[in-house]
Write a structure and sequence with these properties.
It is built from eleven helices and six strands. The chain has 264 residues and is mostly helical. The protein has a two-stranded antiparallel sheet. A two-stranded antiparallel ribbon has the order 3-4. Strand 3 and strand 4 form a beta hairpin.
Length: 264
C-alpha cells in the first residue's frame, strides 16, 4: 500500500516489511506480517548503543577494571636504607641544629661493620625525602672519611649503588651522588687507581649529565653554594682522571670520546 494513503503517519518512520524475517537492509527489526506497513520508532546505531553503555559504566573518566594511563602513579622505590631506618636498625639518627641537620652516631663510624653499613648508606643516596636524604649523604661522608682503608675494601659493593643513583636522572640525587663520589675518590691515594676498572660501569650517564645546567643546593658538603649538575659532572671527571692517572684518562676517553684531559 503506498504511503500516500497514510496521511497520519510520519513518512520517516514508515517501512515496508517484505520478508517474514522482519528485517530490512539496514538491519532494523520490523514487527508485523509480510506485506503490511508498520511504523517503528527510530533506533540508534549499534556503535552509539555501545558507546552509551560504556559511558554509563564509567565514572570520572574511569573504565571498569582498568585505570587510565594518566591516572597511573609512578612507583616509588623503597630503598633498603629507608627500611632499616624505619625499623630503627641504623646506628645513627638525625640531629637538628637550627638551620642545618647533623648525624648523631650511636657508635663511632670507624667501629662499624663497613661491608654491611657502607653499601647500605650508599643505597640511600637515591632518597629525596627527609630525614633519609640528609642521613644517607652525611653518613656516607662520615664513613668514608672515618676509615678510608675500610671504605676502599668495600669498593665493589658500592658501584651498583652509585650507578643506580646516577640512573635516576633526578638533579638533586645526581648532584649529591657526584659529591659523594668526589669525596670518596679524594679520601685515599689508593682509591683513584682502584676505581679505574669500574669506570666503564659508572661513566655512561655522564654523557648526558655534562650538559645539564640545573642548579642544585648541595647537601652535606659544608657551605658549598648552588652548582649546576653539568659543572659537578665535569669536576668529578677531572678528579677521577687526576687520582687515577693515565689509565683513568683512557677509561674516560673510551666512554666519553669528546672528553679532553685536564692534566697539562
Amino acid at each position: 500500500m503506498p504511503s500516500a494513503f497514510l496521511p497520519n503517519v510520519n513518512r520517516a518512520h514508515v517501512y515496508l516489511v517484505t520478508s517474514s524475517r522482519g528485517q530490512d537492509h539496514s538491519g532494523a527489526r520490523k514487527i508485523g506480517i509480510s506485506g503490511q506497513v508498520c511504523r517503528l520508532p527510530q533506533r540508534c546505531p549499534k556503535e552509539a548503543l555501545m558507546t552509551s553503555s560504556r559511558s554509563s559504566r564509567r565514572q570520572d573518566g574511569r573504565s571498569a577494571g582498568r585505570m587510565q594511563p594518566l591516572e597511573r602513579k609512578q612507583r616509588v622505590t623503597i630503598t633498603a636504607f629507608r627500611r632499616h631506618y624505619d625499623r630503627g636498625d641504623l646506628p645513627a639518627g638525625v640531629l637538628h641544629l637550627g638551620t642545618r641537620n647533623a648525624i648523631d652516631w650511636k657508635i663511632a663510624p670507624a667501629r662499624l661493620e663497613y661491608h654491611f653499613f657502607l653499601p647500605l648508606f650508599f643505597d640511600g643516596l637515591r632518597e629525596v625525602a627527609e630525614p633519609y636524604r640528609t642521613l644517607a649523604v652525611q653518613g656516607c661522608i662520615d664513613l668514608v672519611l672515618g676509615a678510608p682503608s675500610k671504605s676502599l675494601a668495600c669498593l665493589p659493593k658500592l658501584i651498583p649503588a652509585i650507578r643506580s643513583a646516577l640512573d635516576t636522572l633526578d638533579p638533586a640525587v645526581v648532584h649529591t651522588t657526584l659529591g659523594v663520589l668526589q669525596v670518596y675518590a679524594l679520601s685515599s691515594p689508593h682509591v683513584g687507581p682502584a676505581l679505574v676498572p669500574h669506570l666503564p660501569h659508572i661513566l655512561p650517564p655522564f654523557s648526558a649529565l655534562r650538559t645539564w645546567q640545573n642548579a642544585v643546593e648541595p647537601v652535606g658538603f659544608g657551605t658549598v653554594s648552588r652548582q649546576a649538575v653539568g659543572d659537578a659532572a665535569m669536576e668529578t671527571l677531572e678528579i677521577l682522571e687526576k687520582r687515577g692517572g693515565a689509565a683513568a684518562f683512557k677509561a674516560i676517553k673510551r666512554t666519553l670520546p669528546t672528553y679532553e684531559s685536564c692534566i697539562q
